[in-house]
Amino acid sequence: MAVLKEVISTGPVRTGGAHGRRRGGSSVPVLLATDAVAAVLAAGGVQLLLHRWLVPAVLVPAWLLLQASQRAYGPDADAECFRRVARAACLAAAAAGAVWWFVPRDEMLHDAMIAVPLAAAMTLGLRWLTRRRTREGRNDGRVLVLGPAASAAELIAALRRGHGVGPQVVGVCRTTPAARDGGAVDVLKAVRRSGCDAVVALPGPELGPDTLRRLSWELRAAGVDLMLAPVLADVAAGRLAVRPVAGVPLLHLRAPRLSAPPRIPKELTDRLLALLGILLLAPLMAAVAAWVRLDSPGPAFYRERRIGRGSREFTLLKFRTMHRGADRHKAELAHLNRYGSNRFFKIADDPRVTRAGSFLRSSSLDELPQLFNVVAGHMSLVGPRPLVKDEVAALSEDASHRLLVKPGMSGLWQVSGRSCLPTQERDRLDVSYVENWSPALDLSILLRTPSAVVRRTGAC
Predict the structure, then answer these.
(1) How many other CB atoms sit within 10 Å of the CB of residue 203?
(2) Stated pTM of the model
(3) Is the pLDDT of residue 291 over 90?
(4) Could you tell me whether strands 380-382 and 301-307 are parallel, antiparallel, or unpaired per DSSP bridges?
(5) Among 9-13, 35-39, 285-289, 380-384, which stretch is predicted with the lowest mean pLDDT?
(6) Does pLDDT of 124 surpass 80?
(7) Cβ neighbourhood burial of 191 (10 Å; 0-12, 13-18, 19+)
(8) Which end of the chain has the smaller Cβ count within 10 Å, N or C?
(9) How far is Cα 237 from Cα 235, in angstroms, rounded to an integer?
(10) Are 396 and 437 in contact (CB under 8 A)?
(11) How far, in whole angstroms, is CA 258 from its chain's centroid?
């Protein structure tokens, strides 16, 4: 194996740590303490509101036991947090109903139905805060990448695209077919030279079972972790599971969740939140509409045909941000298109944009009328970017998978750079969302959207 001496730095993604550390997030004591605090806060809230003691007295130990029964303290607890906390809450509600059946005290069931959702919400909130503070407070791991040069470059590029705290790639150990037998010595030299905490091995014919087994023993003696990178990139941890089959550990990749039943709660939540948003933001939307009308001649709203789920067309609503008849001048400005293609059209300092439109675009206030599209069922709060017909016609086979779900007001593209992203990156993020969708991913995107809008990230 040839050792590349070049030191390469990456973006913020955590992939590993020193020998003996827990992978995947917070330690078990931290998770237990976090859940205990959440249960205490929920119990205290029930006690203050209802002035009864029975449910608050048993809530803390019962909640921790229910969490443990759903493997909420396992090695992949962070990746499966939302699902396992939700299962524990459902189990708690069912247990309360069973107890009430044998001991029919209405106030006990009433208190439990208040305490359980409160404990679940507190647990999710505190776990998110704890995980965020833990990641901000720890040092990045130092990793050495082992594998073919092309695969190593792809891995480093994937790490740079990520979000959050991550490793520092301190070197690459490039494998070659001629070094199948003596490569472990070179790797150990590179490990000692770089001072890394872990070695990330990439798939390749040079790294066979015997080589990896021998390397794992050598690295164990040096106190360094060995991690195997999967062949597929952009796969959420929740979709991966190791399953032993006939004594052989196989990596199981769960299919994307595209069937209707898992998405029914998302549909209901989208419409209820959108309706609530319309009611709360009605005064703001009325003021914006009046400003648009006063700023330049024309209607307050701009209507455009877009392609939704299943390639069905719908009318997308936005506040008008351009002068009337702006579409007629698109061909004249085509040479200024920053994307250089027909799929996306955007130019800097577009002369067709009004004074009000410039502010509305940078602040994303022009997209507020899309709440009506969400209520009507054409869009979701979170999803891929809605495309026009010409863009859909230019999609690749992989990129067309985005049409399996509803487009969204926000999405991974919105919180990762918005208009400044290159075309391939926008497609990759949209397809990644479709393949890795989960309620936890939607919640994460919704929580990140306000800060991206306030900072005007990528609003260029």
Answers:
(1) 13
(2) 0.64
(3) yes
(4) unpaired
(5) 9-13
(6) yes
(7) buried
(8) C
(9) 6
(10) no
(11) 17
